[in-house]
Fold this sequence. Notes:
By secondary structure, the protein is of the alpha/beta class. Helices cover 48% and strands 16% of the residues. It comes from Lentzea cavernae. Belongs to the short-chain dehydrogenases/reductases (SDR) family. This is 3-oxoacyl-ACP reductase.
Amino acid sequence: MTSRVALVTGAGSGIGAGTAQALAALGHRVALVDRSDQGPTVAAQITSSGGTALAVQADISDPDAVAAAVAEVTASLGPVEILVNNAGFARDNMVLDMPLADWDAVMNTHLRGSFLMLKATAPAMRDAGWGRIVNLSSISALVDDDRANYVAAKAGLEGFTRATALDLAPFGITVNAIGPGVVVTEMTKVSAGRAGRTVEEHVEVMRKSIPRGRVGTPHDIARAVLFFAAEDADYVTGQVIYVSGGPHG
């Protein structure tokens, strides 16, 4: 496998961290972009295992921060060839009670952030005639209650994936999306609290609703990312795959 430069947003924990570690294990040089200060810890874990990693702290909804982050990654590792738009969070509420600030915050990270990251990295991919972009959606894009902002953002991200796949296909760039189902991460604590359960109780309730009989892990999602990012996945673009332990609709 050719060693590529991969940039993963929201890589300080959860699915982003697992994805960064999986890419590094294949020999890719990985940039971990996160607005928190957790990125260096994950980067240190990667380097201690023999990989190459760079942690950059940035808010991907800020165009100046995105430009600076991509410039730093390019100077240190080389032009970005694999982009994983993973950063995101939830601010759940019934739509009539949802503050505008919570609507904007979710939209700005999931949609605006993914747009800004693509705009900052895709020109180098176009010049090279090769690129992989993977957007992290969710099964919530199909439907979910009390989270209209999150559902709209993820559904929008899937539309963004299909549209940009058409735009970028002539340049050798593929754009695909992954919709995780129930994956135990820090966000699980938020969901459990919203449901009035402990994390353990919440995971058990969710597990019973999954045909596969278990909840997901960041590694389950990372394996799908690796497929879309592979050298020989160049005929797969504009697709959304739900990694959720069973069919949803």
